Amino acid sequence: MKFLETWKRKKEKKYKILYKHGPSILALVFAGMAIALWGLFALLSSYPIGLYVYYSLTPKTTQLLGESLQDTSKQMIEAKLAPIVPVEQTNMIEITRDPSLPEGHYLEIPQIGVATSILESSSDSYEQVLRKGVWRVPEFADPTTHGQGRPIILAAHRFGYVDWTQDYRLKNSFYELPKLKNGDMIEIVWNQHRYKYQVQKVEEGTEITDYSSDLIMYTCKFLVSPIRIVVYAKLLK
User: By three-state DSSP, how is residue 139 classified?
Assistant: First the structure.
């Protein structure tokens, strides 16, 4: 009993001293770091939850997203689509076939982590391919036919769908498109031919303004918004 009483008195004395002097500076530092880390974790984990809540409250959001991208392509087709003009062979950039490259159509943007297929679809069924990733607007060019006011135009969702993982979103959408800057590189592999493009400008607006570019990529700035983020790039020799 005497031992227990002595231990109890020491314990009470210890807590009285701690209460009197308060926690140490080191303890406060560690507590602040723990709170900051928990806050960062909560912020990052809230993104998919926020999308889920928004999509649940507005079930037509994904349809509106697809329609907004399609509206932009319709505007381009109606107002800006130039007639196909034969391009002289002397003006074409010759890209050699590389058998080590895969067949098919692929887009890589190392600066923002995009590594995905370029999906083909008619303008009537655009929503099916936008659910998977990047869509090439079919009324415009592909890497083998660009030129004379007929650029390659690629469109994709920025935020995508609630069932996408963050890793899938980064690789297969234009989520990070606003981070591109002049000089960044873009690569398209098209049936075992590698085409390299360099970003010339990045802008925001309601429509595409420069159809002289070899490659144009665009996405919505916000979930539902008429503002587009547009990237213009030129083909390198």
Answer: coil
108 and 189 share a domain? Answer: yes
Instruction: Determine the straight-line distance between the first and last CA of the chain, rounded to whole angstroms.
Output: 90
- Residue 73, burial from CB neighbour count under 10 angstroms (0-12, 13-18, 19+): buried
Query: Residue 19: what pLDDT?
Result: 47
Averaged pLDDT of the chain? 76
Q: At a CB cut-off of 8 Å and minimum separation 6, what does 181 contact?
A: 199, 202
Instruction: Give the number of domains in the chain.
Output: 2
pLDDT of 51 over the 90 cut: no
The β-bridge relationship of strands 194-205 and 185-190 is antiparallel
**Which pTM does this prediction carry?**
0.68
Alpha-carbon span 190 to 171, nearest angstrom = 18
- Looking up tokens 């079919």, which residue turns up? 138
Q: Are residues 71 and 137 in the same domain?
A: yes
70-91 residue pLDDT tens: 566 555 555 555 554 444 444 5
